[in-house]
Amino acid sequence: MPTENRERNAVNSRPGPGAKRSASRKQTVLVIAAAVVAVAVAVAALVMTLGALDRKNGPVEPPTTPTADPPTVPPTEPPTEPPTEPPTENTTPETEDTAPPDTAPPEQPKFRSPLTGMEVGEDISARRPWAVMFDNLKAATPQTGITAADVIIEALAEGNITRLIGVYEDFDDMEILGGVRSSREYFAEMAYGLDAIYIHAGGSPGAYDFLQKYKIDRLDGVNGSGECFHRDSWRKSKMGSVHALVVETAGLEDYAASHGLRREHKEGYVAPFTFDDEAEHTGQRAVSVTARFGSAKSAKSTGFTYDPETKQYLVSQYSGFMGDTASDETVKVRNIIAISAKIYILDNDDKGRREAELTGTGTGKYIVDGVARDVNWSRDSISGFFTFTYDDGTPVTLGSGKTYILLMPTSGVVELGE
User: In the Cβ-directed half-sphere of 191, how many Cα atoms lie within 13 Å?
Assistant: First the structure.
């Protein structure tokens, strides 16, 4: 009996066909579920890989299918700078008393031209200038290279004719200067007073006496070796041979060296001009100036027209501005000094040449910045230049720039205009 029951129970416990089908379905479901999970894991891995690539390679096009909003991430504190080692230098806050020292290089000394007062690149105070005799007959104008002169001196030569001395520290790239003409004794005397090397082409008997007596360093284009001179073809074609003689600036230094001409000022030399751009100039209005070398209306005249923007006077003569064949510029100057001296025609001179007494004292006018003021001049010796003072004895200080000096006879006239 017990055996039968066991057999029956065993028979009842065997799975039938339905049970087998149920077990098979369960296994299929499990396999599908496992496959779905595997696909999901693979997709997630692919998404993460693409995200990493996106972050590495920059933005990509957004997916074509909508995605869920990313989870909100609470903001975090910004990263802080890593601690650094404290500086070893003194970090005391700067105050007026503890400001760092000035590390800028020391300012270089400023050098000034002794003839113009203008700033120059090197100390040239000991260098001798060059003084060139210029023809100033109307037929010989315009000159060549006159605009580069630092100082111009004009005086009568003979009759109603004036000549010029152009005084140069530097030729400003002017290759030639001319036309060069002959000297008179008082022209040579003024060049000597400036301790300049004198350039001329011949001279009066009195001039040669003076040049030889005082052993003036010079170049003579007529009675010299002819070095550094030639007749300029353009001037010759336009003005004639007599007005065409020019001096070549490129050879002057070599000439001075080879002929033993002193290039530095003699001991004890004192520059003739002082400059002060801070000085306030007052006096009679002088916007236009006309200087006549005699009382007659026909006397040679030189005009000056003031330009307040540049503080320069434009120089004119012979009914036009004073020009330059080597430049498009008009001669311009900052200072005008017109002085009177005893100038007379030499006795028994068939050319009507003149002489001038330049030692002693005299009067004149100083004109600058549109105003004019009376001055006095004095000159104690042949080797010195003029000294200028106001009526109260105060020395005249010039404005920085070029200067035009008019040496006029006592009959000369200076007219001032608005």
Answer: 32
